Amino acid sequence: MNQTQKPDLDRIAADPTDIPAPIDRSSPKTVSVELTTREQVAEVEPGVTYTYMSFDEQIPGPMIRVRRGDTVEMTVHNAEGNSMPHNIDLHAVRGPGGGAEASMVTPGESATFRFKATYPGAFIYHCAVPNLDYHISSGMFGMILVEPEDGLPEVDHEFYFGQHELYTTGEAGEKGHHDFDMEAMAAENPTYVLMNGEKYAITPDRYGVPSMRVGETARVFFVAGGPNQTSSFHPIGSVWDEVWPQGAIASDPHRFVQTTPVQPGSCAIATLHAEVPGPIKLVDHALSRVARKGLMGVIQREGGENTEVFDPEPQSNA
Ligand SMILES: [Cu+2]
Questions:
Q1: Distance (Å) from CA 112 to ligand 1 centroid
Q2: Residue 120 C-alpha to ligand 1 middle, in angstroms?
Q3: How far apart are CA 60 and CA 127, in angstroms?
Q4: What is the distance in A from the centroid of ligand 1 to the CA of 132?
Q5: How high is the pLDDT of residue 317?
Q6: CA–centroid distance, residue 53 to ligand 1 (Å)
Q7: CA distance readout (Å), 215 to 275, 298, 301
Q8: Are strands 71-78 and 176-178 parallel, antiparallel or unpaired?
Q9: 105 C-alpha to center of ligand 1: Å?
Q10: Is the peptide bond before 60 cis (omega within 30 degrees of 0)?
Q11: Which residues lie near ion ligand 1 (Cβ < 5 Å)?
Q12: Cα(83) to centroid of ligand 1, in Å?
């Protein structure tokens, strides 16, 4: 294993609360979106570095939020100092490659294309150059949310998470700089499976966790970058009160779902109602990915006990 490299970034894990506000418009407009592709060293966990690729220095990339009927002017920059071509394929685009050919850029270049968001839902975007699985595995994916004309139901909080796999020449936890491993990727045997790009990033021991009060409802936006594995997305200590599988928000939600599959190249929108205090651990219920490969995110519920729903120390009535 090579020596750890000096990180270019203190943190590549996206803040789950750093997302655009709900859309408050009743008519379409033209929205400009710019994303910059980057190749940068960051830590997978303390003492383990990797040369990530990203949109705007975060994983998942920034959540793009538009309204059905909007026209989007999409610009992709390829930062000076990068070594590879990059582009973007958004599943919200009707057009060749989801915009991939039109946005192909080499280091130092920029490209713009325009599309109309003709259908609502939560969709992945990702890099789609010829080695696209390598680029996605290195972090190049995010979500575009196309809100329906009438918007989404009001909630108290919205949180944004993304899962993907990292394939390296090292073992999970092995100190040093990990190189990308094409053979491991072809075999679909990841070293790490990560929530927001780093091991246990959104947990109390790393960057802290978002919170909600008992009685409140949160909406979770989740994108599965893959490139290869389906997430069995489960909230430990709760249930998904509602799920829109595939992010298909124009459909009726499923209710009281324990574990929802989110395929690579897809999304889910789900709600959590907090009835008791305590953590909700967001996991892939393929649990070796949690116990051995670094995947976990936490949402904290704060407030008084609700012993009718859950009583950790019941007084005997006998
Ligand atoms: Cu790329």
A1: 16
A2: 26
A3: 12
A4: 7
A5: 61
A6: 7
A7: 6, 18, 9
A8: unpaired
A9: 9
A10: yes
A11: 86, 127, 135, 140
A12: 10
Type and span of the H or E element at 43: strand 30-45
Tokens of residue 38, six digits: 């980057």
User: What is the token pair recorded at 310?
Assistant: 């859950």
The rounded Å distance from CA 88 to ligand 1 centre is 8
Query: Both tokens of residue 84?
Result: 């590879």
Rg (CA), the chain: 20
- Ligand 1 centre and the CA of 186: distance in Å? 18
Query: How much distance in Å is there from the Cα of 109 to the middle of ligand 1?
Result: 13
- Ligand 1 centroid to Cα of residue 125, in Å, is 11
The DSSP output letter for 276 is: S
Tokens of 7: 């990180």
Burial-class residue 256 by CB neighbours within 10 Å (0-12, 13-18, 19+).
exposed
Nearest to 275 by CA among 233, 312, 314, 239: 239
Q: How confident is the model at residue 315 (pLDDT cuts 50, 70, 90)?
A: confident
Residue written as token pair 């000096």: 6
pLDDT digits (tens, 9 = 90+) for 29-55: 999 999 999 999 999 999 999 999 999
| CA 156, chain centre distance (Å) | 20
Do 282 and 159 contact (CB within 8 A), yes or no? Answer: no
Distance CA 185, CA 191 (A): 9
- The alpha carbon torsion through 91, 95, 97, 99 (nearest 10 deg) reads -80
User: What's the gap in Å between 267 CA and the centre of ligand 1?
Assistant: 20
Distance CA 308, CA 77 (A): 54
Provide the whole-model pTM: 0.97
Q: What is the pLDDT of residues 192-249, one digit of tens each?
A: 999 999 999 999 999 999 999 999 999 999 999 999 999 999 999 999 999 999 999 9
